[in-house]
TrEMBL record, chain A:
Highest rank taxon of the organism: Bacteria
Domain called NADH-Ubiquinone oxidoreductase (complex I) chain 5 N-terminal: residue spans: 95-145
Native organism taxonomy: Bacteria, Bacillati, Actinomycetota, Actinomycetes, Frankiales
Protein name, as recorded: NADH-quinone oxidoreductase subunit L
Membrane topology reported for the UniProt record: Multi-pass membrane protein
TrEMBL record, chain B:
Record field: transmembrane: 6-24, 36-54, 74-101, 113-132, 138-155, 175-195, 222-244, 256-279, 285-307, 314-335, 341-364, 376-398, 418-440, 461-480
A Pfam entry, by short name: Proton_antipo_M
Compartments where found: Endomembrane system; Membrane
Name of the protein: NADH-quinone oxidoreductase subunit M
Domain NADH:quinone oxidoreductase/Mrp antiporter transmembrane: 134-431
Record's keyword annotation contains Transmembrane helix: yes
Domain of life according to the entry: Bacteria
Topology in membrane: Multi-pass membrane protein
Length: 662, 519
């Protein structure tokens, strides 16, 4: 009470908007359970070892589901409160107190964290259930569930923290969970390398986030949301400082969300088991960057410069993801680049400022459903095809796995923005708002987003047709023969539920602008945009462009046969070759960072040995070949040591006598 | 309780224990181990009790005792504890039993005397407690030098059996470096005595009296350098570090843990305990140089660690980077950075200590320190790999582990005073991720290197008992570091306030530093 009051008073003195969080009571005093449940699950499974093998997956699923139930209870509790009283803060304990630097572990359950809690625990629970089937033959299944529980706890800490340092804790811990799960099959060198790459690139982003927090403390004297946002809203932070803060936060967001220029780790992360690709590398963790920007809306609101950078990164990433998504034949890689580009849409949306924050979150939630569904569907296909991930080796699978076909198909229609499905509503709004931004830049952002919608329709149709339609291109006989089959109910059940979400979520969010109104207290009013081009025209444009993308893919991959082997680089266009090489992002990283680093390291190892150490050895030898002589016999050396002690003592005594005499 | 002579008892117990263990005949190896374990556990209990009796809010030294030793020269046996020395004694008291238990079988190799090994460990413990407890500068010097002797023999006589030449070389190098620094410090100690005799009429080595002296800036600079170089070698800071990789690689595991975990902390401890309060003007004058060396050390140590093939050398170089962070925090003169630096000393002892222990376990299974001799160990020894990863994550300062708290405090504290330096230093966290995870990747992941390795056993019960408390502390102090911070903060704040330093105020404060919805 007192603390919140102080924040309001102080903010009012500056004439800015007050940031007020109510103290947690009643059901909200159980907010910590959201995190504690999966954390306890992880602890039991990791410490219990093989003893918990038999029921570990059940416990893991149970804690995830329990956390979801707690989330639902709290969500309905929030609904019962009045609009401006829907931010509930729970103080847990004092974490790092050093004089002026006082950081507590505290949680904030508000409109924004509530939707994330439901997404994380809801989709998380479904993917736990799916994994029971998917990982049923894996000897490490218990460990897998332990890590997934650890991930849930970390991700919930990230979205629930009520200050930036707790968020940072969750931020790095989701990085750890992601690392552990990417390298889950760590006997595969590729998996281990991908895990390390993900951690390194994330750490580059983390430097940004850490520095942003340091800026906050040295400017505002606190890392708490209410203090920082109060100061930002009161406009007492200099433009340079607040822009630096925003850009550093953005660096963190780019690392976690696989946005340009830190996108290269995300496709490699597909080395992890497919449920992980769905949960962490599509639906939840990689969208944390979007959460961070929306959470820090009061900061971004103050700096047009930083928002412009967000927009540019979003636009560039949309195109990067789309272009590369067209070139890969590995089903998971295509979906991964699709994720990169869809998060680009979210960045573009939140870069638009108050008009777009809620749109970004809506697309994030819709994407959480359809992309998780698509990944689980791809997992079902991979499962049925004995681990084959090359779409050129698929074809005609609709007949063999009808449930996967239908659920995957709905997710596919949702992502390309088929009228009435989730993606249609959420993506359309983003393009509309970008165009309505005004000025030439508005047309550029809107145009890129529109173009992206067309390319998305192309590569997703390509993926869908190559997988489920056309002629079967897998071996029917011989040792390599495949026997595609539908997956068990633990796997298809979650896929069906996610398909339902893919169909209806978007419509629910836009109905009466429900999501925008819900989030307004956190991110500010979205206001009425001024449309140069009427929304109906934009919608029609999007549909035409998407239909064009669809038609292109249909002509190429349905009406003409698909080769079972990709054509060599020499026979395809320069663009395709570049796209197959991830637009040379890895080459760039290698040439600019890795190689020079390796040379520098080698040089330093050499220099340390012959340079510094050599200098010391040389001078020691010069002082009378001491080291050589001493090395010969230990007894001789001990004598020297005693002698030097004696010498020291004589010196002391001498000095003392001298001073006495003086 | 608080009047009990805790520190003197903590000195006598291991000293007597060492003598008793040393007097055992060689065939009573097991008895020697058991005795050493009991004695070191007793010291740990004493240290915990002393910590409980310590009142953080009281200024000055507690548990103080002072007896004349060489009256003519103003030398006294004076001991006392403040928040900084107390947590370091606690660290030393914790690591010795861990080391005793982890070295249980190590000393059996070859024809070495088991009782002598454990007697050396206890002698070292005496020295470590003494060096932190001393409040007489001459007594400090005596302990500072005395610690060298058991460490010298631990490296020279108990290092890798088949590498006799290398381990003698490493031992001698360690000793020569330390002696050189020690002699410089001795000169400075005498200088202090001379100044005190000049100003007070009678010379003294009493720390509390010495810090009241008004020393002219020129003399301060000379004396500062005498102490600083000794500490910079001990810690070590770049470019005084080249003894460390050799000593780290050639020490027996237990020796390496104590060497890097505690002995090196005497250097960083000396910086904040002696260099800054005794020579404030010189400390301020040399601060930019020290900060520059610190930042160089962070990157230099990290890059060299990445390039190492010998696992123990690798861990030694990571310590060079960590000592960079500690020195950075110490010389930024803000209470956050200083508190972070002291907490870092404790945390580094835990994380690097555990890293050395686990690497030791691994080496014991294969007989090679070469990274390329390993691969896929996570399949064969999953618990060992897991503990290795936890130690590594602490070393790279992941939130949730102890080191994050100290590293972030250092960085944020430096940031408020030296923004650019903090920005550069923060980039070092990327390299930390690389040196740890690259090592993990090469040793623990991938296919099993060699079919013989499949027969290797995972951690034994004894080994699990060794690592369990370390893992618990690494996570416990990451989640709830407040007890230690409450002890350290007042002493550090007072140290800096004494030389006229206070934390810079935030530039645009909105709320008074408040603790977030506590209601």
């Amino acid at each position: 009470m007192s603390a919140g009051g102080a924040a309001i008073l102080a903010a009012d003195e500056h004439g800015g908007a007050a940031v007020h969080y109510a103290a947690a009571s009643g059901a909200f005093s159980l907010t910590w359970l959201l995190i504690a449940l999966p954390l306890a699950g992880a602890a039991v499974l990791l410490l219990g070892g093989r003893r918990t093998d038999r029921w570990g997956h059940l416990l893991g699923t149970l804690t995830a589901a329990a956390s979801f139930v707690v989330g639902l209870v709290l969500f309905f509790g929030l609904l019962d409160r009045s609009g401006d009283d829907r931010a509930v803060s729970q103080h847990l304990y004092s974490w790092i107190p050093v004089n002026g630097f006082q950081v507590d572990v505290g949680l904030l359950f508000d409109q924004l964290s509530a939707v994330f809690v439901l997404l994380i625990t809801g989709v998380g629970t479904l993917i736990h259930i799916y994994s029971i089937g998917y990982m049923s033959h894996d000897p490490g299944r218990r460990r897998f569930f332990a890590y997934m529980n650890l991930f849930l706890a970390s991700m919930l800490l990230l979205v629930l923290g009520n200050n930036f340092l707790v968020l940072y804790g969750g931020w790095e811990l989701v990085g750890l969970s992601s690392f552990l799960l990417i390298k889950f099959w760590e006997y595969k060198p590729a998996a281990a390398t991908a895990a390390n790459k993900a951690f390194y690139m994330n750490r580059v982003g983390d430097v940004g986030l850490a520095l942003a927090i340091m800026f906050m403390f040295s400017t505002v004297g606190s890392t708490n949301y209410d203090s920082v946002f109060g100061a930002a809203a009161a406009d007492v932070i200099g433009y340079g400082t607040i822009t630096a803060m925003a850009l550093l936060l953005l660096l963190g967001a780019c690392g976690k969300s696989g946005q340009f220029p830190l996108q290269a780790w995300l496709p490699d992360a597909m080395e992890g088991p497919t449920p992980i690709s769905a949960l962490i590398h599509a639906a939840t963790m990689v969208t944390a960057g979007v959460y961070l920007i929306v959470r820090a809306a009061p900061i971004f609101d103050q700096t047009q410069a930083a928002r412009t950078v967000v927009l540019i990164i979003g636009a560039v990433t949309i195109l990067i993801g789309c272009v590369i998504g067209c070139a890969y034949d590995d089903i998971k890689k295509v979906l991964a680049y699709s994720t990169v580009s869809q998060i680009g849409y979210m960045f573009l949306a939140v870069g638009l400022g108050p008009a777009g924050y809620a749109l970004g979150i809506m697309h994030l939630l819709a994407h959480g459903f359809f992309k998780a569904g698509l990944f689980l569907g791809s997992g079902s296909v991979i499962h049925g095809m004995d681990g084959e991930q090359d779409m050129r080796r698929y074809g005609g699978l609709w007949r063999h796995m009808p449930i996967t076909w239908v659920t995957f198909g709905l997710g596919y229609l949702a992502i390309i923005g088929f009228p009435g499905l989730s993606g249609f509503f959420t993506k359309d709004r983003i393009i509309e708002t970008a165009l309505a931004k005004g000025g030439t830049s508005g047309y550029i952002y809107g145009g890129v987003a529109l173009l992206g919608a067309g390319i998305t329709a192309f590569y997703m149709t390509r993926l869908f047709l190559m997988t489920f339609h056309g002629k079967a291109r897998w071996e029917h006989d011989g040792p390599e023969a495949k026997h595609p089959h539908e997956s068990p109910a633990t796997m298809t059940g979650p896929m069906m539920l996610l398909a339902v979400g893919s169909v209806f979520a978007g419509g629910l969010f836009v109905l009466g602008s429900s999501m925008q109104n819900w989030l307004a207290p956190v991110v500010g009013e979205h206001g009425e945009a001024h449309h140069d081009i009427s929304p109906a025209v934009v919608t029609a444009l999007v549909l035409v462009v998407s239909a064009g993308g669809f038609a292109g893919a249909y002509l190429r991959y349905q009406l003409r046969p698909v080769e079972a082997v990709a054509r060599p680089d020499a026979e395809v266009s320069v663009v395709t070759v570049a796209a197959r090489r991830d637009l040379y992002a890895n080459t760039f990283n290698e040439v600019v960072a890795m190689r020079p680093g390796q040379y520098l390291t080698r040089f330093l190892v050499w220099a340390d040995n012959v340079g510094i150490d050599g200098f010391v050895r040389g001078s020691a030898a010069a002082v009378g070949g001491l080291s050589g002589r001493l090395r010969r016999t230990q007894t001789g050396f001990v004598r020297s040591y005693a002698l030097s002690m004696l010498g020291g003592t004589v010196l002391v005594v001498g000095a003392l006598l001298l001073t006495r005499a003086g | 309780m608080s009047t009990a002579p805790w520190l003197t008892i903590m000195l006598i117990v291991p000293a007597v224990g060492s003598l008793v263990v040393a007097s055992l005949p060689r065939r009573h190896g097991t008895l020697a181990k058991q005795l050493a374990l009991v004695v070191s556990l007793a010291v740990l209990v004493l240290a915990v009790l002393a910590t409980a009796a310590y009142d953080p809010d009281k200024a000055g030294f507690q548990f103080g005792q002072s007896y004349d030793w060489i009256k003519e020269f103003g030398v006294s046996y004076s001991v006392g504890a403040d928040g900084i020395s107390l947590v370091l004694m606690l660290l030393a008291a914790l690591l010795v039993p861990v080391v005793v238990l982890s070295s249980w079988d190590e000393a059996e190799e070859g024809r070495r005397s088991v009782p002598a090994f454990f007697a050396l460990l206890l002698a070292l413990e005496t020295g470590m407690v003494g060096v932190f407890a001393a409040t007489d500068v001459f007594l400090f010097y005596v302990f500072f030098e005395a610690m060298l002797i058991p460490m010298y023999f631990l490296i020279g006589s108990y290092g890798p059996v088949e590498e006799k030449a290398q381990r003698s070389y490493a031992a001698v190098k360690f000793l020569l470096y330390s002696l050189f620094g020690g002699l410089l410090m001795l000169a400075a100690v005498i200088g202090l005595y001379v100044v005190s005799a000049d100003q007070l009429g009678t010379g003294t080595f009493d720390f509390a009296t010495l810090r009241q002296l008004e020393i002219t800036p020129g003399v301060q600079k000379l004396l500062f350098l005498g102490f600083f170089i000794a500490f910079a070698i001990k810690a070590p800071l770049f470019p005084f570090h080249t003894w460390l990789p050799d000593a780290g690689a050639q020490s027996p595991t237990g020796g390496a843990v104590l060497l890097v975990g505690v002995l090196d902390k005497v250097g960083t401890f000396g910086l904040i305990r002696y260099c800054i309060p005794l020579f404030p003007d010189a400390a301020e004058y040399f601060a930019p140089m020290v900060l520059a060396l610190a930042v160089i050390g962070i990157f230099y140590g990290a890059l060299l660690a990445i390039g190492q093939r010998d696992m123990k050398r690798l861990v030694a170089y990571t310590s060079l980077a960590h000592f960079g962070f500690i020195a950075l925090g110490t010389f930024a003169f803000t209470s956050q950075a200083g508190t972070g630096a002291v907490l870092y000393m404790v945390n580094h002892g835990l994380s690097t200590g555990l890293l050395f222990v686990v690497v030791g376990f691994l080496v014991a299974r294969r007989g090679s320190r070469d990274v390329s001799a390993y691969g896929g160990m996570a399949q064969v020894t999953p618990i060992l790999a897991g503990v290795f990863l936890i130690a590594g994550l602490s070393s790279l300062a992941l939130p949730g582990t102890n080191s994050f708290v100290s590293e972030f405090l250092v960085l944020v504290g430096v940031f408020t005073e030296y923004r650019a330096l903090a920005i550069v230093a923060t980039c070092g966290i990327v390299l930390a991720a690389i040196y740890i995870l690259y090592l993990y990747q090469r040793t623990m992941t991938g296919p099993v290197k060699d079919e013989k390795m499949r027969l290797v056993k995972d951690l034994s019960v004894r080994e699990r008992v060794v690592v369990a408390p370390m893992v618990a502390l690494i996570i416990g102090l990451g989640v709830y570091p407040k007890p230690l911070l409450d002890i350290i903060t007042p002493t550090v704040t007072a140290t800096f306030a004494d030389i006229g330093k206070s934390d810079p105020a935030p530039t645009a404060p909105v709320a008074a530093p408040e603790s977030g919805g506590r209601s």
